[in-house]
Amino acid sequence: MKEQSSKLLKKCLITCLLTLIIGISDAHAQQTITGKVVGEDDVGIPGVNILVEGTSTGQITDFDGNFSISADTGDQLIISYLGFITQKITIGNTTNINIKLIADVQSLDDVVVIGYGTARKSDLTGAVTQVSAKSFEDQPLARLEEALQGRAAGVTVAKANGAPGSAIKVRIRGANSINRSNDPLIVIDGFIGGDLSTLNPNDIASIDVLKDASATAVYGSRGSNGVVLISTKKGKGVAKIDIDFFTTISAVPELLPTLGAADFSRIENSRRIRGGGTAIFTDAEIAGFEANGGTNYQDEIFQTAISQNLQLSANGSEGKVGYFISGNYVNQEGVVINTNYERYSLRSNLNANISDKFKIGFNIFGSRTTTINDLNQFGRFQGSVVLNALSWDPTTPIFDENGNYNNLSNRSLASLNYNPVANLTLANVENISDRIDANINLSYNILENLTYTLIAGVTTFNGSSESYRTFRADPPTATFGNNKNTTHQISNILSWQKEFGKHNLKATGVYEFSGIQNRFNGYTAARLFVPGGFYFAETAPSSSQTVFNNFSERSIQSLMARSEYIYNDALFVTGTVRMDESSVFRSDNRRGYFPSVALAYSFDNMPFIENSTIFSNLKLRAGWGQVGNENIDPYTTFPNVQNANFSFNGSDATPGVTPDSFGNPDLKWETTTQTNVGVDLTFLKGRINFSIDAYQKNTTDLLLDDPIIPSNGGNVTISKNIGEVENKGIDIAIAADVVNTDNFNWNSNFNLSHSKNEVTDLGGRDEIQGTFGSIDGQGRIWNIIQVGQPLGQFNGTTFLGTWKTSEAAEAATFGRIPGDAKYLRDENGEILFGAIGNGTPTLTWGFNNTITYKNWDLNVFFQGVHNFDILNAVQGVIVGNTGNQRSFLAPEQLNQWTPQNETDIPAGGPNEAGSTRYVEKGDFIRLSNLTLGYTLKDIKHINANVKLYVTGQNLFLITDYTGYDPELTSVPADDNAGNKSVDVAAGINAGAYPNPRSFIFGVKVGF
Fold first, then answer.
1. What torsion, rounded to 10 degrees, do the Cα atoms 983, 989, 990, 994 define?
2. pTM across the whole model
């Protein structure tokens, strides 16, 4: 019994001992692990998920990023957080772990948006250029278009003028169309038809430019002018707040030389005496002008402008929800008095991972822009307001002795237009535009390899224009116009992707519907009885009131299929076909089919690349495709009328309509066919990237407005599919990390584009007259479209200098005398007119450099534009003796022809401003941006980084052009305003708003 009890006791002791040993062993293995999770800035991240792999044991970090969790030695901790790369850490002997998470940048340097999807840069087959936010974040920008300038090969960005808020012209590989828009298609976060001018540059994550038809064919009938894809920022990671504020001081870099009052009066006396009259100024008056200098109206209309730009943003993620919220306020004062631009904008981007299969995003953006006195709305008959100031009588003061404006020259000299200072000061033309963009995108993984995406959005635009103008002594005029657009889009995208060993296959299908509805109404009230401003329009007599209204709508539905095949990461094939059906054409011509195919081969796996110490990558690309242009007014296929008044009794005007254009039921799409070949090279383990593309694109069946003269009189057009335009050229891009060390980095990007534009057919005609009317009172047309020549041809006469004394007899046969201007004439003795120059550049380039040394950073950006002419009609009017500018105002007239000094500067005779005398070379090189910044990192107590910077823009200009700036043109760059002369009248300067030189002082704060 005792033995049994003893055995039982031993068993119990052994069991207890084993239990204790096991317990001690377990106690030794099960540990409490503590630590902290930080980001790349070493700041703790709250809400990070910490999970013991294979168990349900988990914790999340606290507000400071700290955590505590129990785990066994050898266990693996999984650390995950939205926006960061998930990490696994094996538990060893230490019980305290500090973890640094790395942002999951599915890097914009590696992933490119290609329309209805994305692709790795290494997988691209078409000509696609990406401009990341990193490339322009060191340049303070008020307009997003400026971020593209000089940074994307094949993309030309030109300021038509320097007015605040003015439209900026963007062209991708030249101009295709003569009468229709050449603006590229803008797609913002998948929604078609955005407006770059309203966007806050700080909201942008990347800009992807689709250049060749193999890339743009996914957008079919709207892709002929290239596509700009905008991706806005999304929230991820730890919460961050960024503030950027800068102030800009701007001024006209240099005034144009004009005669002072004393020299002007002497030359005016000489001009009158030469014409058989008498001197108009006495010696005493001239002496008075010598003493007080008279009035320089150019100086009077310009000012030093001060502008502000404030940008705020917050982004981050909480759990599975990411957010990006931003606001922007811009107030730009113009360098011309009483001109201004103001913009407010708000953006909210939310994205959530509802589950492993279901993702949702909602973006909303709103903006209000207000422009005060857009000089383009003042008209350019006899020149712009700027030109009027350059050619106004310097002997007439701004105000008379009673303090009232001198509306006109006291002696009817120089410009006979209205006093430019009064015109600008008293005018109040206010344009207000409200825009709201809202879109939702849903993504659901139906199967492992099959995903459905829905993009649905709506845009509302409401623009109004209120104008109050006074002209000379006449009662003022008030005008109002309201334009309301509503756009909607629904895109259904189905994508499938599967890897089979070395084979990778991806297919994308799209069904899309979009439409736009436009309403326009307004009125004009002239001869207001109460000149108190716009809101007294009802005081105008009923006979001076005009009401106008308009309504239109259009829609387009589309089917698109794209397949992408990759073999062994070496062979890449992409094929696309899109069908568009547009309501602007008749039923028989509504459908258009736009195919494309592209092929690329990478030699990266070849031994001569793998074993090379110089080459890292080599890829050859080739593509072909067709895209379209359906950008005509909705009812162009039907006859149209316009408002008109007619007096049946000889006194009272009866309102009615007259023919405006004839309908053409046979209209169909413009079609652009493009072929592209390219080479991509990478050197020195990715430190240098080189790309070159050569292309040719032909646009056929142009939607051309053909002028005809109907039997009932008038000038009427009919739209036809006639003509062809060709563009061909080369794009080169080089990116290099010149120096890359711990403390010193130098990144450099250079791109160059050479393009040649040619009109190859005009439906059997040799030429078509343009639409840019002369401003010199001669009634000429200064542009022309000619077969065999580029768009942008100047139409004018050849200046041969002056008639000399020895040519007096010959001059007399034409009614001229020695000293008069001499022009080339035909066999009948008539002045000969024809092409005298071209305003379309053939070579553009940009050179961007970013240098950082410790906390310092420097950005230097140059751009160049070459091989184009400018018709400097401004100088022609300053010279004078033409139209409403009868006097001489150019300093060169001090050396004008005399019998003793027979120069080629005319002393009289008609002055043709549209002549070779005023055609100049427009080539220029500009230092567009120079920014120096210093960053204060990890400032104690406020946990923030602060960057102080100073910037100079348009600091210097190398050019032979004698005007303000060779980039400027007098044709507004806004095709949407109904302007059809943007590209066919390029390079004509009739008094464009000057491009200012700016100095910027700013601060950025990041929390």
1. 110
2. 0.86
